[in-house]
Request: fold
Amino acid sequence: MSELRFDDRVAVVTGAGRGLGRAYALLLAERGARVVVNDPGGSMRGEDPDAGVAAEVVAEIAAAGGTAVACTASVATPEGGRAIVDTALDRFGRLDILIHNAGTVRYGSLTELSYEDFEAVLDVHLRGGFHTVRAAFPVMSEAGYGRVVLTSSIGGLYGNRSVANYAASKAGMIGLSNVVALEGAEVGVRCNIIVPSALTRMADGIDTSAYPDMRPELVAPAVAYLAHESCSLSGELLVAIAGRMARAYIAETPGVYQPSWTVDEVAARIDDIRSTDNSWILPPLSAHADHIGRTFAMATEGKQQ
Reply:
């Protein structure tokens, strides 16, 4: 098997100063990519920036013979998103890959979480995804090529306590990815989601002594594959945790068709409605149309599909 390389490709990796993002940046650079290492270097709350964090990764890449440049702009603003993309264009003259990994965490239960902390986390995760995509997508479209990898989480898929801001951001990232995939299909831009789990500083304070190997380096190959020109996937979700890689997907039960419903009939047939027998697993890039088409067919034919 020939080695998948990124020679002549330019990649932006947000949140690349530590943890998962650092692992992504190092792997891409090792395989020949020129990398924009984006990270303001702040705390997990997004405070106390430190420009040295991104610079250290750039130095590490250079010491290994690679090429990289640091960018400390924040993804949390439109101006920051544009500055990150402009760094790639100004320094390397192109942009082929966007990996949005940057993230912060601010904890609080639904009765305690402040509006400030809710918005601050959305600013980095979800709005940060849009700010960087909004700047990168026209560049990729004009070039007729691009690979975008956005980051969700098991917290976005399944939720978790005390992180409504994080869960909402990561769930929203899936919708954003779907739109990028749909609009990108016509212009050579593919977009997918990575759902990673690794032991990074997000795990500070958790007893991980019984955990298996969960180094960020176990996730990086999945992200690099999604960023490679040979990847034909778009609109999909790959899970990477502790050496396990899998696909996550959204499915629908076939459900039940009736020409009209009462509340009592819903209650009486809820088990049939929820039955996962013969579930619909719709193709990512046609799921919207397929969902409507199959539903309309049931209504037209007057029976369960």
Notes: The longest helix spans residues 164-184. The chain has a mean pLDDT of 96. Strands lie at 10-14, 34-38, 67-71, 97-100, 146-151, 189-197, 237-241, 244-248. The radius of gyration is 21 Å.
